[in-house]
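Async update (no meeting this week)

Hi team, since we skipped the sync, here's where things stand on the single-chain job. The sequence we agreed to prioritize is pasted below, unchanged from the tracker. I ran it this morning and attached the output directly underneath so nobody has to dig for it. Comments welcome in thread, and please keep replies under the output.
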Amino acid sequence: MKLAKKALAVLLAAAMLTGCSSANEQSGTSGDDSSASNGPVSGGTYIVRQASDPASFNPDAKTDDMVSYTAMNVFSRLVKTNAASEVIGDLAESWEFSEDGLTLTFHLHDNVLWHDGEPFTSADVQWTLDKIRTDGYQSASLAMIEEITCPDDNTVVLHLNAPSPGLVSTLGWLGVFILPKHIYEGTDWLTNEANSHPIGTGPFKFESYEPGQAITLVRNDDYFKGAPYLDKLIFTIIPDANTAFQAYMNGEVDDLMLNIPTSEIAGLKANPEYTVYEKASNNRTYLTFNFTEGPFSDLRVRQAVNLGINRAEVLEKAAKGIGAIPEYYMSPVFSWCMNDEAKIPQRNVEEARRLIEEAGYTADANGMYFTATLDLFDSGDFMDTATVLQQNFKEIGIDLQLNITEIGSWQQKVQVEGDFEVAMLSGSQGPDASAIAMRIQSDGALNLARYSNPELDALLDQGASTSDQQARAEIYRQVQAILAQDLPIVPVKEATFTVAVRNTIHGHPYSDEAIGEVASNEFTRIWIEQ
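Output:
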């Protein structure tokens, strides 16, 4: 039986949302069209804060969170993931697997144009995915693709070496934006001029970029799904979270997206001028370690950290109760594969200190065994979380120093150079359970620890290519058992996506009216009351 687009979207939505720690909620006065005195109007500029400059406007070559806002509005994907973690169509209007699961066929929209006026065809998809398979940071996630064929300009067929139930979800995630073949073919995609002046098929066209200041996009009147309402979309670069929040409250910024300080959320919920959207999330905050050298290369020290974190205190003090205490080594969104035999242990300071001493450390007069540095950037409740962790580490005898930088510097130091002892980060653990491979598999793009376990690698490959849900569940339970044993990551907090929007703004990607049409950070349907 063929698995059609709508059935797949329903299954994915159920898998993502079942077992979440918090239900979807909407607080305050509705920001939907029904509350507006008039219908949608065109015009206006919408300003979104982002924390740092992008490294490049090539969204597929290297991981870079700071290009994602621009990418979701300038480029398109075959499919995209919305704010409810559902996969919906983008360039593809429909898709289906063959009965044996070894071919995945996408049927593309007609009359799609690149921003330079050239026609988009299936050849662009073929070229892009072939390039990603060899040189993109999602190459490991597309390893099951053996060949890509194009029967005609509007059809793309992916031939797989094994069934891959999570492939459609992967194609709706980051790092798989379709690039213009006529611009990139025959060039170095890392140095192509389009990396500073991107050309896509999305709802907005690139206009300008002032480093350290702003990225400006303008309406694409030829967008194949209908032109946006906004004239302009500006991503203003404000590194400091407190400065950004003040700009937001002063009306200088329209949208903070997921970067509202947790201490301010209650006040926004109580303010009748705002609507606060809360969505169940597969995003979690965690620690990872330098496995190559230093104190955390010793498993006993990592075990001590895992035992020493007061996760309830992190949730209460840093997250102001928004989110949940993690219990598993994979996101609980994937409730169908949780391993109750490999859960995160209860806090035990005494045992943590014993493990550090067993690792060969002796406490000084202040009860400290050694000093270590936590590398982090200012995002969401990271600063408050780090303050709680600093005290937790002190209680188990580790003098934790905080090295706080902007995200670009953090990525260079931690992700590129591997120059760190312990680092904190967060991020989506989806859209399919197989996506965790990016963070823990030997060649995973976000495997910051440089952790490698051949048994785990084999299980992750097996999980990505197994269709039977029960068999997949058992594989990912084994994955969790290995994670509990090796601790390349130590979960700290489960997140809830929280977005606040003024009631004069409609069609937000988190709103009921737009969530079924747009990607999570796509502003195509935004309109502003005049």
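Quick observations from my side:
The CA atoms of residues 183 and 408 lie 27 Å apart.
The chain has 15 helices and 18 strands.
Reply here if anything looks off.
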